[in-house]
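Recap slide: 4-hydroxy-tetrahydrodipicolinate synthase, sequence and predicted structure.
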Amino acid sequence: MNKFHGTGVALVTPFNTDGSVDYQGLERLINHLVNGGIEYLVSLGTTGETATLSKDEKKKVWEFTAEINNGRLPLVAGIGGNDTLSVAEEIKTFESNGYSAILSVSPYYNKPNQEGIYQHYKYLSETSTLPILLYNVPGRTGSNMTPETTCRLANDFKNLIGIKDAAGSFEQFNQIMRDKPADFMLISGDDPVALPMMAIGAVGVISVIGNALPRQFSDMIRLCLNGEFAKATPAHLSLLEFTRLCFAEGNPVGVKAALKQLGVCGDDVRLPLVKASTNLDAQIAEQLKQLA
């Protein structure tokens, strides 16, 4: 699964001013990322505002993304939810042409215990013909997948190939690295901690700010993959303020503001999100002048 080493980007979903999906903007974004040197694309993760898309819209976005990518990069589809049977059915009916894996978020809102999380992923593992990346993001789901559960799943089901972990706990990351199978991938789910996570053995990141700055971010991550952390650190530090701004008013609000300023796509989002404030927009523009 070396295809998932390095920088994956969680694609935003561009919208027109009337709220419809902007497929021309999505095409420009995909080409922007391919030309920016990233390693793989993640379609309809959290950053894609997937919670606001209909089933028909999701199907069309997945198909369009595969068509425009045209085999240039590996593709991952975000398919998750808080109803195990519904998620399994969506995985069963997913037309996987062009896709190499599924990213599936730990169930949100229900707040299952660890056995419930284990049984959820067990069911999905036994359903899916594609390998699955687990996704732990307690700040959104309301529950944390512990290292014990992660490693139990990794040992029990070979098509659970890695985890995107956004728990923010290095105690947790350390324990996963110590106890996981050798070929199970730890992937950073947070841009600001990608470098230190890779220093303990993570294989890369699924990035948000990579939407806007694919070349700068993926170059830094490749230095980390090569063990050149001294060379990577200045780039890492130079991106911290831009990253902070991108999340200051919610994701993907900030990075969409940056993408509009770069001429890639518009900054429209769907309610309950709203576009970046004038002040944030100006701060992001200033950072882009320094970084782009």
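The first strand starts at residue 6 and ends at 10.
The chain has one domain: 2-228.
(End of recap.)
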